[in-house]
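Project standup — Tuesday

K.O.: blocked on the structure for the chain from last sprint. Re-posting the sequence here as requested.
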Amino acid sequence: MERHLARLSPVGSSLGEPSLSEAIDHVRDAGQRVLVDEIRLLVLEAQERLTAALRRAGWLGFGVFCLVLAWVGFLLAAVVALEGWMPLELRLATAAASQLVLGLCLLGWGMRSRRQPR
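H.V.: unblocked you, prediction finished:
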């Protein structure tokens, strides 16, 4: 029983066991280290998620860029394919009008689907 009381002694004992205040300090220091480690882990996880999100955004942007280039290429091919049938001005106006109609339809569809509940 004396040994148990010596551990709780605020001054310590001659047996080299820590005092109560030393034990509390040790627990506090360990708690601080755990907290610092948790914060470092959260920062690392946030950096990893941000890096992954930026990588996905970069690939998405590159994919959209390639799709736009292909879309413009197909429009130019259509303008060139209609060369013998219409003058250049009419071919360009037809290509622009087709994109205008497509864009308006997509905007209308987007607005309609936004108003409808899921």
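K.O.: great, moving the ticket to review. Residues 1-7 have pLDDT under 50 and may be disordered. Residues 86-118 form one domain.
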